[in-house]
Amino acid sequence: MPHQSLEDAAARMPERSGVYLFRDKNDRVLYVGKAKVLRARVRQYLAGHDPRAMVRLLVEQAVTVDAVLTDTEKEALILESTLIKRYLPPYNVRLRDDKHFLHLRLDVKATWPRFELVRKIRDDGARYQGPFSSAQSARSTLTFLQRAFPLRTCTDSVMKGRTRPCLLHQLGRCVAPCVPGHTTPEAYRELIDQALLLVSGRDQELIQRLKDRMFAAAEGEDFEEAARLRDLVKEIEGTLERQKVADPDLADRDVWGVFLEGDRGVAAIIPVREGKMLEPEYLEFDDAPGEPGERLSSWLNAWYGEGALIPPEILLPLEPSGLDALTEVLRERRGGAFRVRLPQRGEKARLQRLAADNARDRFRRRNDVADRRRRALEELATLLNLAEPPHRIECFDNSNFQGTNPVASCVVFIDGAPEKKHYRHYKIKTVVGSDDFATMNEILERRFRRAAEEGVFPDLVVVDGGKGQLSAARAALAELGFEDQAIIGLSKPRTERRKGEHDAVDKIVLPDQDELVRLPDHDPALNLLRQLRDEAHRFAITFHRQVRKTNTFTSALDALPGVGPTRKKALLRHLGSMKAVIAADLPTLADVPGIGPQLAWGIWSALHPDETPADNTAPPAAPPAAAAPQEPR
């Protein structure tokens, strides 16, 4: 039954357009929605006719509902989007993570613009391309742009401090706008225009422009430039081979397909640019209340936010609520003609059905993954005699190189899926040398002391190792007072020759059991444990490499008199990276502001202790009474 205060608040709702906010007893906003008639819309939630679980839970948790009145449905639509971003209500559209969509940003007002990935769109005059539903898709696009067009990738602060081109220029990956004389603003702007054509889907126009320049370069006997343009055209055409002509009118549009099942759903958005169908983007939603039309309206409002790349036409499978207001808002955001179509026949209807098929297939595959995870968790619960499947699993691993730079990792899976925002890495503080048992003891002590403070404990701990590692971990937990903590080990495969057979299967190590448990190679529980182990190892070794690289570089320079934070920063700013510092010759090092020939020799010698310069340069003699150069204050 709805709370009485909620019933009273609903009865006081005005009969006009606006935005409503359901709140719980702690005044937290649970859900934000818009309505043409507020009282009628809110009463639909309280009537009890909607069978979906999320609507029932929303009404049970809410104790009141507030309203913000607007003059028009269009104003309500804009305000709804603003309030959702501000309050992040748990019952509004929930994506696979809590982050904003990624966009490509280009500051077109800058003399030397660069592409970068951002999650927030600001009213700063920059040009934004997107959104991208996944970080992988966005980063792949950025990587291709950086490979195809030699634009700068460094930040403004790094660029301002350069006096020599970086390593990317030597590799032909940057035209070095940081150093006068290497390019002009006009030539750089031409590269920017080409890149924008590509990200906007105008690939045919770009290819024709590049071919014209290629032929012109060949006629002018600039064969090196002609060959570069030829290779660029081939690379761009290679990325377009998977695309097919989807529409003979060569128009730009987005085709939406939606599949809903209860409170869950998937939307597939297929961009069509110059008649070519591009790779779909997917939005996956859980626990989304509201009628299908209302949900679709919220999704469109979120996807085509301020600054998004909005095509002149979108094709939808059903009419979103407040279609006229939504169309007007999106037309203003686009800054040009815009329309929504609900095709019933012909080529556009075929495209819309194709998008719906993609959404249905994505939902099915997502369900298959969820079912495998559920079976894996249930099997682990049976194996360990747990009262219920483990909700939160934490896996620990450590990494070092011959006992140096020891680090460790903790990865967290929630309901069988990685939850990367809870991942943690540790620098080992109390262990000297390579001692896996002592390292595990320190990790668990630090993790569970924090768990005791925060009240967040794992339902299951997984350690990478056999009986020894598991025993050490259990002893550490017992010493901390957590002897009842569920814990399991995963023993790495050992390939042994026994009667001509190879035993190379991971085995599960259970507490107080001598025999290791061997599950079938494709068992869901075993695969989940492997995924945990491999992810913990990846996270640990990645962090170890970062620490090792930093410490190696820092220790080599710290041993030199006169090289402190300021000069180390100058080296990195001038040369671009630690790798470039190591690769630099003596003249290059000497050109760094604040270094000079004498200190350059000392740096080069420290980084290459067993080598001599290629030109057999002798170390410069120090002035007779001069002390070592001092770090600037």
Descriptive terms for the model:
Nucleotidyltransferase, domain 5, seven-stranded mixed β-sheet, 633 residues, GIY-YIG endonuclease, 20 helices, 44% helix, alpha+beta
Would you kindly provide a written description of the structure presented here, covering whatever features stand out?
The chain has 633 residues and is an alpha+beta fold. Among the domains are: 4-87, GIY-YIG endonuclease, CATH 3.40.1440; 253-364, Ribonuclease H-like superfamily/Ribonuclease H (Nucleotidyltransferase, domain 5), CATH 3.30.420; 392-544, UvrC, RNAse H endonuclease domain (Nucleotidyltransferase, domain 5), CATH 3.30.420; 559-633, DNA polymerase, domain 1, CATH 1.10.150. A hairpin with a 2-residue loop joins strand 15 and strand 16 (417-418). The N and C termini lie far apart (70 Å).
What can be said about this structure in brief?
By secondary structure, the protein is α+β, with helices and mostly antiparallel strands.
The number of strands is 22
Supply the helix-strand structural class: alpha+beta
Classify the helix fraction into a percent range. 40-55%
CATH superfamily of one domain: UvrC, RNAse H endonuclease domain
CATH architecture of one domain: 2-Layer Sandwich
Q: What is the number of helices?
A: 20
Radius of gyration, in angstroms, nearest whole number:
30 Å
CATH names the topology of one domain as Nucleotidyltransferase, domain 5
Largest sheet: number of strands, sense, barrel closure: 7 strands, mixed
